[in-house]
Amino acid sequence: MADWEFVHEELEVEFEKKPGPPVAFTWRGERHPVAEVLRAWADHSFGPLKRPGRWWQRRHRNCYRVRTADCSLVDFYLDRPARKWFLYRRCARARREEGTA
Hints:
Layout: E1 5-15, E2 22-27, E3 30-43, E4 61-68, E5 73-79, E6 84-91
Antiparallel strand pairs: 1-2, 1-6, 2-3, 3-4, 4-5, 5-6
């Protein structure tokens, strides 16, 4: 099972064409090619709020889980209102196939 490390740092994401899957991202000055997009989803939740607020208080994020060329797993998202990408978390020691011990 993968051990995830919370990061939450800004990064740059590259696309061959939009809309479309990401092909690479740059984090801390280093470019990481995307080998495989494992999952893509939209997050419209209210986050950690105890009581849901109004619709405009929801998150508006486009999220991705990808495997990089060096077999690292990362989750990153686009904060649509801010128009910024963030590396949410990473697992550098993930195995090639999820679910293997």
